[in-house]
């Protein structure tokens, strides 16, 4: 099975969306499926406002049409609600081809935090976007409940995984003897990092990652160690060198970084909100509390071996199988319309071969 993933998030971006589809692309061939990606690389693009490192695509109808027909997919999945996602959604609607979507990012909360736009306006747009498809994949059960209350239909569960062979306990202490309180992820206002950095805690605080708020936070908190982005072994060693992983976000949809931290034996301190509530077992793999300082202190007492064991519940193989099952469920709902039939029905001039974008997103 060939699956086309339309995504506005692609490398060199570093976020949960990119990580998810990179891992998915590696796992799916074992189950007889492959991914092709349609990303901003296929179009003209401009820097995204407030996030200049992210390319904002300017997709045209002809390029979108040619790209999809060149990929000749058996199924279409739209990963993001950006310009690429909207363009492919329009193509699917125009051609009567079913598609699935996924809800990775709580844009209404982010837009409200950045620009003051009422959340209900953004949710109305997202509801229209996703309800046009045959299913919306959601990682966290608590988020699925929130979306259902807001009128989103055909919600499908899709978990995430962790590479246990890459993230595991190591006898390293990169940041001193501690206690070390670590955050890994995007350094941006929606991650609520100031609440973490304002806490009065013993030891030191470390921020791994980059983003539009980094320069501001480095200036405001000179005692905090900012490493920038880390990858591979460097990232795994950063996790293993800490004593508590602090996740101050109140708006994440899952939080892959939390299970990466758990895989290294690092307990979590977080608010009891969507994401942490679905990933962390309170008192076992972390502490969930509305008092984040208390959560950090109590997390220091947890058994790191037990924390590591809790991460074993997540595998990318299971995530890949669940993704395929969701695709099968969604496409079975409209067996009379497929890409192959839409392509046969198209005028000959629209069936030309064009390059496909395979850059991972």
Describe this structure in words.
With 361 residues, the protein is α/β, with parallel strands linked by helices. The chain has 2 domains: 195 residues, Glycogen Phosphorylase B (Rossmann fold), CATH 3.40.50; 132 residues, Glycogen Phosphorylase B (Rossmann fold, 3-Layer(aba) Sandwich), CATH 3.40.50. Helix content is 39%, strand content 16%. The strands form 3 sheets. It has a 6-stranded parallel β-sheet with strand order 2-1-5-6-7-8, with helices on both faces. A 6-stranded parallel β-sheet has the order 11-10-9-12-13-14, sandwiched between helices. Strands 3-4 form a two-stranded antiparallel sheet. Helix 2 crosses helix 3, helix 4 runs antiparallel to helix 5 and helix 10 packs across helix 13. The longest helix is centred in the last third of the chain and has 17 residues. It is globular. The C terminus is likely disordered.
């Amino acid at each position: 099975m060939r699956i086309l993933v339309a995504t506005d998030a692609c490398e060199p971006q570093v976020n949960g969306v990119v990580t998810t589809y990179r891992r998915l692309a590696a796992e799916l061939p074992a189950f007889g499926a492959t991914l092709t990606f349609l990303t901003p690389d296929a179009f003209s693009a401009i820097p995204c406002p407030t996030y200049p490192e992210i390319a904002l695509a300017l997709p045209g109808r002809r390029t979108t049409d040619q790209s999809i027909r060149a990929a000749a997919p058996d199924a279409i999945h739209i990963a993001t609600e950006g310009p690429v996602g909207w363009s492919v959604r329009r193509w699917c609607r125009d051609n009567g081809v079913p598609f699935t979507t996924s809800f990775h990012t709580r844009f209404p909360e982010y837009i409200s935090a950045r620009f003051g736009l009422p959340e209900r306006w953004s949710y109305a747009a997202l509801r229209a976007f996703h309800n046009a498809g045959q299913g919306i994949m959601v990682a966290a059960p608590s988020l699925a409940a929130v979306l259902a209350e807001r009128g989103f239909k055909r919600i499908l569960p899709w978990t995430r995984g962790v590479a246990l062979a890459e993230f595991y306990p190591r006898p390293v202490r990169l940041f001193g003897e501690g206690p070390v309180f670590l955050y890994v992820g995007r350094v941006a206002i929606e991650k609520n990092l100031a609440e973490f950095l304002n806490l009065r805690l013993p030891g030191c605080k470390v921020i791994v990652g980059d983003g539009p708020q980094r320069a501001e936070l480095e200036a405001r908190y000179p005692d905090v160690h900012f490493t920038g982005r880390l990858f591979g072994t460097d990232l795994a060693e950063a996790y293993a060198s800490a004593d508590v992983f602090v996740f101050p976000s109140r708006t994440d949809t899952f939080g892959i970084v939390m299970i990466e931290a758990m895989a290294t034996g690092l307990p979590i301190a977080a608010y009891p909100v969507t994401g942490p509530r679905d990933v962390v077992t309170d008192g076992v793999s972390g502490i969930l509390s509305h008092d984040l300082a208390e959560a950090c202190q109590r997390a220091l007492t947890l058994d790191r071996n037990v924390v590591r064991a809790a991460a074993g519940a997540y595998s990318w193989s299971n995530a890949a199988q669940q993704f395929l099952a969701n695709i099968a469920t969604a496409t079975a709902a409209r067996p009379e319309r497929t890409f192959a039939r839409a392509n046969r029905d198209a005028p000959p001039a629209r069936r030309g071969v064009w390059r496909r974008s395979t850059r991972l997103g």
